[in-house]
Amino acid sequence: MTAPGTFIRVVDLETTGSRPPAHAVCEIGWQDVVLGDDGIWQIGGADGAHLVNPGRLIPPVTQAVHHIIDEDVADAPYWPDIAPTVLRSNAVALAAHRASFEQRFCTPALSGNAAWICTWKCALRLWPGSPSFSNQVLRYWRKPEGLDRDRGLPVHRAFPDAYVTAHHLRDMLRTTPVETLLEWSALPGLLPRVPAGPLRGTAWTLIDAEALARFAGDRDEDVRYSAQFEQRRRTGETEAMVVASPDQSELF
């Protein structure tokens, strides 16, 4: 049971590319989600953003995404110096949308071995009817209460993205214990529908056993796990998904 007054810190990174050590962080943003004395999770606590000197040039194709240029970060602190000041916060956990990306750069050494919640993985289980599971699609599909449109813009900057993710996390926490979100986040993503190929958008419950067996051997970890989960469900080895599977006509 989480004690009142505790918090989870949602973080978002903008980087020079997808993976270290070839690429590095150029901005970090954060927004806390706080458990009040009334037992209700709210947006609050600390928030902010820091530019980070990545120690290398930012490729033009990446500048075009977040619009952070080399001149912006020339005098900014380096990642090993700024990261612990944000990541080591005595939070119950850190959280991010598709947290596996942030975890590439927010190593255990920098975060103090913090636990992580992945709001993307949790959204797959809690809101399987969403037309997509990106941070921004969830924002406009769900319309979280209290989300200030201007504070959530521009997209692909660290604080606005963390702010939007925090609203998703807040709503998750109001229905689901922290411990469950952490458990789901440690597993592969449980996709509600086939994500690609001729059967794209089809719920797993509607796929025949032969096709399901092929997906169960897929190279993609999330696809493989989702197909195997459905196989176990059909044999009674595991529970059904949290919410009924959506109609196959919905797009992934």
Automatic annotation (TrEMBL):
Keyword Nuclease carried by entry: yes
Source organism, top-level taxon: Bacteria
Listed GO MF terms: exonuclease activity
Domain Exonuclease intervals: 7-178
Keywords: Exonuclease, Hydrolase, Nuclease
Gene3D superfamilies: Ribonuclease H-like superfamily/Ribonuclease H (3.30.420.10)
InterPro entries membership: Ribonucl_H, RNaseH-like_sf, RNaseH_sf
PANTHER family: DNA POLYMERASE III SUBUNIT EPSILON, EXODEOXYRIBONUCLEASE 10
Descriptive protein name: Exonuclease domain-containing protein
